[in-house]
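User: My collaborator sent over this chain with a note saying "see what the structure looks like." That's all I know about it. Can you take a look?
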Amino acid sequence: MSSIFETIMLVCFGLSWPINVIKAYKARTAKATSLPFILLIFTGYIAGISSKVVSGQMNYVFVVYLINLAIVLLNIVVYFRNVALDKNSR
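Assistant: Without extra context I'll predict from the sequence alone. Here is the result:
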């Protein structure tokens, strides 16, 4: 049962990240984006994945962690793209 609740939590968080990536990509600026915040979230997902690996609970929740991690990584890529765009627009 705890895996179901953990998955619901991850899906809720995970659905917000693609929206954020699209918004940041369209904005074409990094001015309102916090890299430390994104890196903190990224680190949290790494910790969650590590927890699953160490405990041997490699179930479907592990896959959700990986999907969320990939989306947050994409957000980091968009952040650096936007930083470059900000520098070029000066």
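A starting point for your reply to your collaborator: The longest helix spans residues 60-88.
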